[in-house]
Amino acid sequence: MEAGHKMALYLVVMAGGRGERFWPLSTSNLPKPFIPLLGSNSLLQATVARMQPLVPLERILISIGKEHEEVARQQLPQVPAENFIIEPMGRDTSACLGFCAIHVEQRDPDGALLALPADHYIGSGDTYLKTIRKGIDNLEGATAVVFGITPTRAETGYGYIQAEKPAVPADAWPVIRFIEKPDAPTAERYVASGSYFWNSGMFLWNNRTLLDLFRKFMPETHKGLCAMRPLLGRSDGEGQLREIFESLPRISIDYGIMEKSSGLRLIPAEFVWDDIGNWASLARALDPDAQGNIAQGSHVALDSNGCILYAQSGTIATFGVSDLVVVQAYGKVLVCSRDKAADLKRLVTALGPQAG
Amino acid sequence: MEAGHKMALYLVVMAGGRGERFWPLSTSNLPKPFIPLLGSNSLLQATVARMQPLVPLERILISIGKEHEEVARQQLPQVPAENFIIEPMGRDTSACLGFCAIHVEQRDPDGALLALPADHYIGSGDTYLKTIRKGIDNLEGATAVVFGITPTRAETGYGYIQAEKPAVPADAWPVIRFIEKPDAPTAERYVASGSYFWNSGMFLWNNRTLLDLFRKFMPETHKGLCAMRPLLGRSDGEGQLREIFESLPRISIDYGIMEKSSGLRLIPAEFVWDDIGNWASLARALDPDAQGNIAQGSHVALDSNGCILYAQSGTIATFGVSDLVVVQAYGKVLVCSRDKAADLKRLVTALGPQAG
Question: What are the chain A neighbours of B332 within 8 Å (beta carbons)?
């Protein structure tokens, strides 16, 4: 426990992701982490703010794609300029975290790396930090610590992690296995069992261990990382970095490393968590009015219920409608039935260049 | 017939009206006649353009409220500046037409006055002009000519005019009576009978006869008109004009004069006509797509049907919705069920200052 506290903790905030499911507020130019979905702060800003009590700014790294560097720097002026880790292109979370790991290694070979996605809703900051602290306290002797969300519904859109309840009550549970998105009856069973958790995508490693895992389970990526090491921070290294990065396999860290690793520990998380996969998910993260409407921005909802309204600017007025998503952003208006929100990509495809 | 043609015809386009039922495109600052509801032209512009083959611009008068003078002049640069008849305030159609009548009298004591509302949809320009010409040809010897629309549905939102079918086929039918908005069974009977017509609000008088009708049926207004006569065109007369105008009773020309007049002739109108009372009425004036959606402006309607979409700027995208009115204008968005469109004033009231 003491050792865990002595080890310097580096936070890697992963701000990747697509924009289709939050059109028109979010676009490929401005994916989900960068939009103020739940208030005045973007999810990225909220993620950093939430962790600041635990990690000093100089050890908060922001992993982003080249195309989002400008907006990320604008949104996080407090983060030191050299802490933005710019990916030449997207190669999924394994490449993202391997690239971050060699940056952390350069600063502190003995550091720990906490990876947090930047596009989730977290309900309670205090409980959240307590849970992260439990993870840090349980890292020593583990291959990695994962954070598992106690499921509150039979969600078929998330991955699950099965863990073993300790005989003697303890903060950390041994991980049994990672599970891809289940079907509905299976998800029902998982929720009932008490030993299945939602995979939050939040992971903690000793950074050296993480690089060892790359060597063991993703040797091709590890080779690339080794080749990139001497290029970091060199102004003439960009072209080579790009070339190597491009060659890395597009594989998630879950699939490439976590599912294959033994010795993982899971911290059951007691905070409210949601991946807010689409506009309809906002209903789980924001409080409804008496008619069950969820709203952000200026609006009037008359004889309307169950609607999700988001006005980036101007005003939305609804009258005599139910269960709609209405969004106004950048001069564009979306009106979508709530049950189609998960399928919004189809609309964005139909819009083509009009999607902006 | 020849006499009718010799009499100089003055057109009065009445561009009054409220804005609530076309919020947010229309507002009290920009009522229905001034908005481009059916294309790139406003209804006012379309009304003037439609009549230009029949009436030279120097005899086209535009009757508007003081508050809409600027926008009216902007929209009709071809109309001579002195042809805008500015009402100091709204006092319904009797005051409006009486005020116009003394203007026409000043220019030509022997002129005829054709009054047309500026906020109607007219389906066919050719048939329309033919119908107006029939009216002109039948004015001599009539107290007034009214244009009656052959009803195509049992509309309860319009006034009706009963006329007598001539024994020998003729263009003009003697008017029997004016009827206020009927209930549904009555309207059904009217449509079936063949001798009831929608009151289009389009009237034609010998201007001198019109002033006589004021003297006879609205002596108070007539007295006001006589007092205003010497003030017209005087730069120092504005205050007095305003004072007199304010004292005029708020009564429609239908109620104040037409219903009481005998010797009226009705021209059955064969053109498509609609008063476009609210957003839902657009469905009668514009062609739907294969899914029954009506749209103006940039839009994509995916898995959507029966919707009315109006994008003043930007783009509206609908997905998986039915029978909605969606309007984007001036940064405001309206999403309303079609069957609530006639009641939009309630929403505008609820919006209060947010309605803009």
Answer: 314-317
The token pair that represents A75 in the structure block: 């949104």
- Mind telling me how many Å the CA of A20 is from chain B's nearest CA? 13
What is the predicted ipTM? 0.87
Spatial distance between the Cα atoms of B257 and B268, rounded to a whole number of angstroms: 21
Residue of B317, B326, B331 lying closest to A314 (CB–CB):
B331
Which residues from B are below 8 Å from A24, CB to CB? Answer: 317
> Is the link from the previous residue into A24 a cis peptide, with omega within 30 of 0?
yes
Spell out, as residue ranges, where chain B has pLDDT lower than 50: 1-5
The CA R_g of chain A, rounded to the nearest whole Å, is 21
B127 dihedral zone (left: phi>0; alpha: psi -120 to 50; beta): alpha
* Interface residues of chain B, partner chain A, Cβ below 8 Å: 23-24, 298, 300, 302-303, 311, 313-321, 324, 326, 328, 330-337, 339-340, 343-344, 346-347, 350-351, 354, 356
Exposed, middle or buried, A354 (CB in 10 Å: 0-12/13-18/19+)? middle
pLDDT tens digits for A66-98? Answer: 999 999 999 999 999 999 999 999 999 999 999
pTM for the whole thing?
A: 0.89
Please say whether the beta carbons of A112 and A9 come within 8 A.
yes
A87 neighbors A4 (Cβ within 8 angstroms): no
